[in-house]
Design a protein that fits this description.
By secondary structure, this protein is α+β, with helices and mostly antiparallel strands. Helix content is about 20%, strand content about 35%. The chain has a single domain, classed as Alpha-Beta Plaits (2-Layer Sandwich), CATH 3.30.70.120. The strands form two sheets. Strands 2-5-1-6 form a four-stranded antiparallel beta sheet, with helices on one face. A two-stranded antiparallel sheet has the order 3-4.
Amino acid sequence: MKLIIATIKPFKLEEVREALTDVGVRGMMVTEIKGFGSQSGHTEIYRGAEYAVNFVPKVKLELVVPASMADQVVETITKTAQTGKIGDGKIFVLDVQQAVRVRTGETNEDAI
């Protein structure tokens, strides 16, 4: 099993969710986050005053999928979330040692 952590632009969330559902992903966790990478923030003017915005709003997706699906899920997220502009996000893939469904006690791939 693989844990896929992806950070994407917030306005791409629904489109990515639909694409992942189409390839067979049955669940994911979504968190609103703030961060910075290459763009390292920017400045905005509000009511005549300039403010530094050091953290940019992002959405973090966390999915656990069978190892056989990981490449397809990463490709789907990449194609769907890409705008071609700086700040499109990142994807990390980690190994998962164990998964347990609390309600039924099912383990590993049966739990996801």
